[in-house]
């Protein structure tokens, strides 16, 4: 019996030059669609949950294409609004070796960013839901969306829906000051927070020692400290942190940790050879939500989330096209990549 | 010795699903760049003129790609400004048979549409120029650009630069009333006007009898009437009108006429099997400007323009990638399409 | 308020060499999915109906891809069964000029062809439905599916669901004798029959005079005769016949007629330049069902169906990706193919 | 029991921009291989003959790729020499509508053009052969190859092998004077000549009245006259002429005639919608040779050749990928292009 | 002077989503053809041997395409039968990092799997041959093919043809019990066995200690033990074992060993960065057969086989497109991957 | 204020099979354009210099395409001559793992290789220039080009233009003896030499101890020795050497050193995961020239050059499409490859 899960945010068209080409070289773009919360919805649909994505897209073929992409992968789009001016776009160069992946956003004035809070009927949307998820990107799109988020989490709280939030700080969307103000208000209604050290520091000034993310050196202790501070500051039920070690655009270390108020669980650490790392964090969030929704222990939950997001790095596009059994198989230990016949 | 020609307007990224796919089916887009005035500049560069395109593009890889596309085809980009938020985009489905080609514009808030009139140093830009060309799209982008156009044509007039304008009415950009007001002011400085019956009627209320464009029926007499009225109303030196007969999205009739104040010259009529018809009118304008700049007679000029734009219908993208000798060869009569070895 | 419509049959993977290549030349195949009844479901979903497709696909990524393709285009797949050995495949060369399109079927042993009649819970599937549609292909897949069809139409009849059947004779699937025996039994429960002259002749021995389909000569009188005979023989509520004039693989004449027991209505005749003609008949059926479900007159219904299927010839793949407004626009007369901006 | 047939000439790499792009736009080329005599060999292999192609290619992966392409389509490459500097290349833009297809040759210094006559062991190559075919291109590659052709046809004559020659005048390879001198010598050993009016006029000064090939106007009488003159001048056993009416790069009329010394047979005339017309004449030659080798009457032979080459216009690449039964089917009259299921 | 070598088995169409896409994401498939024994034949043709592949394919364009693919790469297809229902297909996702490559078989009811033993005239096929090769896949296709294999190896033995067998256990084709029964009978006629630890254990219950293939840990001692047991049990002339260390789907260790009854030779160990690992074992077998046929010492033979199959991991498709000199160059030690100009 | 820089040499069409395919497998080639000196010009244009490339290309669409490719990336083509027979071509297989990248040259008889020294007006070309760069490939194209190089460097010297030369020995173009004779003469006018150990040894017999390039073992001391010897022998102002460690075709170590007469500076050493390594050395030269032209210290210059060329290994094609800020960012230490949003 699938659980109803609702995620809320922006879905963008993603335009990616094929074969490691740069934008100035490209004569074609591969087109997919994605966004932090949409990516989470796809993960949950893949694992069998009834996942709804809430957004607003323009009433034209481009908006329809975004809806179709979600439907294709099993996401329910019943609450998607149509109208407004445009679908947000982002251009994404796939990096390699020392050349970083590049994201050029062209998301201003998107339909969702201009939507009014009252367009969303949260009572109806969250009716019967078990979980509501959003990220720090959604309220950053404007005061209107910050308000919509607040409406949503308040309704969720009232209806007994668990709320998770991936902090996801985007410096191009708002200032640190604005982010802190808005996010602090929203955190009051959040049960599970997900982030990385940078997010916590940027958004809430919560920081760990001795980690230089450009060097790929991670202080595990620092992260644990951050998790606990977050947990305590906002009276959460759980805090998850993803730990990316950036050796190069082609190779990363990847793991996560989860603090449930009692103990901190660090997942297995994966060395990933990257096909496409966009959506890595979202796939972790999607995995974590699935695991917590389905009664996994804290230890199992972080392992499931880490395995799911490890696999994401091998998948083209924002969405994590892996099955439940593939995640469980990796989580249980088979990372050999042997051919499955 | 090439002539310096300047065109002014917007260049957009064009995203086209390959192989007649619709946007909702597309997993990739072919990417080219184009816009009414940029297309004219490419035509002129192809024929050997020193063509400058003036616009503003964002200072990011997407803006750079637009510049590169122009440079590739020989257009000088010395006066292109960098800054602003975004490059305009348009999505373009290639129609076939009874299914019309579809254009979805996503051009709002583009860098050029937000540029200030004073950013353009027309004295410098038009220094030494022989010709200045713009279309009705540029002033439709906003009052700022209407002012920039006015600045440009006034400077041109003062410097003795011939000015041409393709009326190009775009109903999604402005109302008929606004268009009439702005365009009437600009026409005072225009020497050569180019348009089709619809443009003249929409923008200036100048109309011909008994033509139903959706039926593909053209009244030649009506068009002549329109040309003369335009000529007289705005004290022009020449008026050109393109005549498209739309049998289907795959097959059109195509020709043009030119009125030089004395006589009206109708070009040969071509039956074109369409590969890509976007930019058809622009390639006519580019051909006409080249011919008039190079001392062609009125009769020759309209034949050159018609031949050039006939060929455009067989070229992928907005730009008309044909050589001077190819146009002349067709103009002189070889429409057999025999293999050139 | 959308109507629930159910279609039942096989969905196959379609492998098409790109760019007019032949199978022996192909180094890649474009992959889409389609089948007579699935194609009808997509048409209805496009027009806003709640369309369900019933079938069985293997429980592997290939079967999942077929489901995803349906979901993407809005078809409900709630009643799709999973299991069995394989998804049927067909290879499809796109012909041109005098070279015919070629279909190589590899559909034997598909999951749906091996499904047992009792796997389909027609009470539940047809609960609340307004319309049930199948084609002559489904019962031709085997006695098991002939039985499943019989179960379905009997249930439909009992529940007051309108039943339509596209005769669609496939000589590679069964003999004329077998077809006649099975189809005659099924026709007892059918309200609306759709076919072409060939179908009626092959399946029921109902034939018109003086038409040689390989010559592209159509006797309208003959077709009317066939429609009436079908209507009378099986006490139908309506008979539709599609009329294809095959001039070449690139150019066809296309129209339809509909007999409602009182009068025969012949649609407008279209000359189509073909992009992809597979699914042409299905798009006619989809259009007809939509029109009849929504209270169109007989005349309007056949015009809607003809316009919808005219457009299909310009769409890549089996599915007819056109919107309601596009069909209505063509039906009302704009076949000019002018760019829609 | 297949007949051994030998053809001799150059095979080149053909580089074609995809999707009607021009060379200056192309970011990729489709690569195939072809050449007048190789194309004939492929046709014959397709129809079941044992076709050998004789040439010389460089001993590198590019030369190997040419060999592989021949082998793939059933041509025997036992007598292909390896060595020399390079494989000839030609760039080929696919034209459309009034824009002609364009061929840019880059064939100088190819391995075959530099081969020495004594490298070819004609005794061995022609041992057991029934037919030897070459075109006017081969001797035009240089005096060495003119000599090799002479060696070949003399040996053929001695061994009782029928010799055919497609005149195929290429003005970029040699002058009219040189062509006439060399070809006249070779014609002494030729049994069947194939050409078009232009060839006969250019090479031998044999011309027909009142035909302007750039206008698409064909004088059938003129062609008959040319055929008879050729027949008589060189004491041939048969003369075939292909008749192309070039309406545009997209649409041609196509037919052929054959004179056997008694009567002139004109084939059915096809209106072809062109996918790729390169190799059209070669596919006619291939069809004619097959028909004459297999005892077809003169009338049947020209119909078979015309049907085969009609189909070629719908096939991508130089080679005519059609089966014997497809040609016979068209020859017998089904040009409807109806789907073959 | 090339040696005649015969291999016998199934060739399938392989459909691979491009660019690491998963099947559910794919809008196109790259199409190649392959199968254990066909792959070996291509290797041998590449090295200059006269390699024949024996199979049965359907008499349609799909079957012809498989034949053409073999011919292209130099394999003789004289003994390929035509008929039956279909060509087997397999879908193949290319894995990366921790995501394993995935194979979905759709090979049931293929023409070869339904062929009758008496259709193969082994006397003729093996006439003049030096070597016969098959794998454990062929007899697993059905009792008919197990019989055909038995016929083949008995004939081979009688004619003095060396027989090799790659054990290649496929659990989806037959049970361990069945495999053991059939393979034991066939081994009586085998001279050279090739396998990996898993094969030997699954098929014959011969196993080594302390190797966990999912962990990528290899016990060299264990493998030697297996080789010797196989050698002794079946009175072989040689046993080869491939040793794959699966670190991930992107990186493997690769080597082989060969036991000639006297000594065990372990090849150099390669760390391979994988482009496409399907056919890796087959390319080892192809290399080993070539080496043994051409008088290489045991040590050289295993080094040649290991180098050949190391290179295979960098080649797209099942076939190992490398030249003799490339293998020898690597075998002699240049693994630097420096550009060859 | 950009510096005028001139480079002189050949630009070739580069044909690359996509996706790691080999030439014998390719059905299409990706087409780019490149050559040692053109690549340097693009680097300099990217960093903002006014870079001119001097060459000769055929006056046809293929030559034009090469010019367009240069213009696209900002290189000035004012001094490019048109004429001659052909554009040089090279085929380039992208290697992987132990399979080396392969280059097949087809550059003989190119327009530039046949150009006459007097066609180049060096007074005009070098007027106002700050730097002139060529490589050892240009004089290797023939005595005519050796003379043209000599004319160029003499003129440069006279006009006070700094001259750099990348030794770039190509064994297929000339013998060691010839190279030594010609290069020795040219070195008299050179200020900055760039090379690798192999070049110095091959061209001038200057060699270092104990380095086996096929083993990937580099003796830093040896390289320093070579640099000093080069410096002293030819009275240079600077010597740069690139140090490639070839672990495999997929992974290399990469660094450079620079000797300015006082000290030797070794750059940071990068481990690069290779996308496309052609043009790696040229991007080093381009970086070095930029740095020296813009007043970087010796230490900074070699770091800039190394960072620029490190990034090149991740860029498709010959040209190094990176921005000044990207190089500086890497040079300053961020090699983490983290996504740039």
Automatic annotation (TrEMBL), chains A, B, C, D, E, F:
An example molecular function term from Gene Ontology annotations: kinase activity
UniProt keyword annotations, A-Z: Kinase, Transferase
Pfam family, one: PfkB
Cited CDD domains: KdgK
Ranges where the Carbohydrate kinase PfkB domain occurs: 3-311
Keyword Heme on entry: no
UniProt similarity note: Belongs to the carbohydrate kinase PfkB family.
Record-linked PANTHER family: 2-DEHYDRO-3-DEOXYGLUCONOKINASE_2-DEHYDRO-3-DEOXYGALACTONOKINASE, SUGAR KINASE
Name of the protein described by the UniProt record: 2-dehydro-3-deoxygluconokinase
Organism for this UniProt entry: Caldanaerovirga acetigignens
Lineage summary: Bacteria, Bacillati, Bacillota, Clostridia, Thermosediminibacterales
């Amino acid at each position: 019996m699938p659980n109803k899960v609702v995620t809320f945010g922006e879905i963008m068209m993603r335009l990616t030059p094929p074969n490691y080409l740069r934008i100035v070289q490209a004569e074609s773009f591969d087109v997919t669609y994605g966004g932090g919360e949409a990516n989470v919805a796809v993960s949950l649909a893949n694992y069998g949950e009834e996942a709804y994505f809430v957004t607003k897209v323009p009433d034209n073929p481009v908006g329809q294409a975004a809806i179709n992409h979600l439907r294709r992968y099993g996401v329910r789009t019943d609450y998607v609004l149509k109208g407004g001016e445009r679908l947000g776009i982002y251009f994404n160069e796939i990096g390699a070796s020392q050349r970083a992946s590049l994201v050029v956003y062209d998301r201003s004035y998107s339909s969702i960013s201009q939507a009014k809070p009252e367009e969303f009927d949260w009572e109806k949307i969250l009716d019967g839901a078990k979980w509501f998820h959003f990220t720090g990107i959604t309220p950053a799109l404007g005061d209107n969306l910050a308000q919509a988020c607040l409406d949503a989490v308040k309704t969720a709280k009232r209806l007994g829906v668990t709320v998770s939030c991936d902090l996801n700080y985007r410096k191009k969307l708002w200032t640190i000051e604005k982010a802190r103000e808005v996010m602090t208000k929203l955190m009051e209604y959040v049960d599970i927070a997900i982030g990385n050290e940078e997010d916590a520091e940027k958004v809430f000034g919560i920081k760990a020692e001795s980690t230089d993310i450009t060097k790929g050196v991670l202080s595990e202790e620092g992260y644990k400290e951050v998790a606990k501070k977050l947990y305590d500051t906002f009276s959460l039920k759980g805090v998850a942190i993803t730990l990316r070690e950036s050796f190069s655009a082609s190779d990363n270390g990847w793991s996560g940790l989860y603090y449930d108020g009692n103990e901190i669980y660090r997942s297995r650490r994966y060395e990933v050879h990257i096909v496409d790392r966009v959506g890595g964090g979202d796939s972790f969030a999607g995995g974590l939500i699935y695991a917590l929704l389905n009664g996994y222990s804290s230890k199992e939950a972080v392992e499931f989330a880490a395995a799911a997001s490890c696999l994401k790095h091998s998948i083209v596009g924002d969405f994590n096209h892996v099955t439940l059994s593939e995640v469980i198989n990796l989580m249980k230990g088979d990372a050999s990549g042997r051919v499955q016949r």
